[in-house]
Amino acid sequence: MKVDGKKYRTIWLAKDGESVEIIDQTKFPYAFEITKLHTMEDAAHAIRVMQVRGAPLIGATAAYGVALAMRADSSDDALDTACSVLLETRPTAINLHWALDRARKSLIQVAPEYRAVAAFTLANEICDEDIAINMAIGMHGMELIAAVARTKREGEPVNILTHCNAGWLATVDWGTATAPIYMSHEGGIPVHVWVDETRPRNQGAFLTAWELGHHGVPHTVIVDNAGGHLMQHGEVDMVITGTDRTTATGDVCNKIGTYLKALAARDNNVPFYVALPSPTIDFSLSDGIREIPIEERSGEEVSHMTGRSRSGAIETISIVADGSEVANPAFDVTPARLVSGLITERGVLSANRQAIAEAFPERVKLSA
Ligand code: MRU
């Protein structure tokens, strides 16, 4: 997408052909900074500290991490070490496993002297595929938005609520939940987005609001608890979120708080859609609540907040009573029964085993 008129992806091979560049997401929304990854450790660090985040982008960064490792040492041992170090960086997003599994299976068949080139080619391919997938998600999701728009008065916007950042910053480009929104906006369908701030790391307020704003999409940031109220008053036409891992049965794991939005949506007859690329489906799992590992992050993300003071300084302040315990589960699972549809690159699917298996038969076979 464009930033101040210039087209960007979130990750790309640098002009030197040796390093990888990323947009450092820890600097948002106050600065737009590009940083270089020179080594596999740099890539692992970028994922761990969330300079890059969002399931598809984590996968793409891991693929480049393997390539950087292969440039330094292309032995079988180095390949295994790179995959296991990168796999440990974050536990919930399955795209990380998917990308590393794909990299290992393909590179182990390549002679060590050609591995670095093959690894960079594969990482580039994974990025290009992500973009193509998200564009297809956008086209399918846009049809859902267009159908709602047809029920509205001329010029009245379709109000879409989203949680966390499943925008282009969470992918290589376009985003998952935002692809239908950007395409609708560009196609002349009036849209307005309710952006959940998404405590504790504020991916909504910091990232989704930033990217929608830079693209000129009308939006309003709300506190995480406002969605139910807005739904009760007819202010939300549909919810579209992303997902970090979806089971073969359609349970959806996404940023903490997503489940509560799905409950409120069901109580108010608001359709709750989840946009996902197929690498986010974990065909080995059937029960999201019991089987998906939920990342437990530092309590400091809850007890402290970082922002810009009135004087313009970036400051971190404490917001919890001294001595109180804090807990910080980063994701939750929305059961398939609360999901109105999965917006995938192969169309909008019912959230159940049969529909998912019929749409992606080759992935079912591979996981069997
Ligand atoms: O902890 P994060 O910021 O990596 O979490 C990201 C999300 O929860 C996104 O909604 C999800 O990855 C879908 S991204 C297209």
Give the topology:
Blueprint lengths: L1 E2 L2 E2 L3 E3 L6 E4 L10 E4 L2 H9 L6 H18 L3 H12 L6 H14 L4 H38 L8 E5 L15 H9 L4 E6 L6 H13 L3 E4 L4 H6 L5 E4 L3 E3 L4 E4 L2 H10 L4 E4 L5 E2 L5 H4 L8 H4 E5 L5 E5 L12 E4 L6 E4 L2 E3 L3 H7 L1 H7 L1
Parallel strand pairs: 6-7, 6-9, 7-8, 9-12, 10-13, 12-17
Antiparallel strand pairs: 1-2, 3-4, 4-5, 10-11, 11-16, 14-15, 17-18
Helix pairs in contact: 1-2, 2-3, 2-4, 2-5, 3-4, 5-6
The site of 5-S-methyl-1-O-phosphono-5-thio-D-ribulose (MRU) has 17 residues, from helix 2 and strand 11.
Describe this structure in words.
The protein has two domains: 2-128, Four Helix Bundle (Hemerythrin (Met), subunit A); 131-367, Rossmann fold. Helix content is 41%, strand content 18%. It is built from 13 helices and 18 strands. A hairpin with a 4-residue loop joins β10 (245-247) and β11. α2 (55-72) runs parallel beside α4 (94-107) and α5 packs across α6. The mean pLDDT is 97. The structure holds 5-S-methyl-1-O-phosphono-5-thio-D-ribulose. 5-S-methyl-1-O-phosphono-5-thio-D-ribulose (MRU) is lined by residues 53-56, 93, 164, 166, 170-171, 176, 203, 242-244, 254-255, 330.
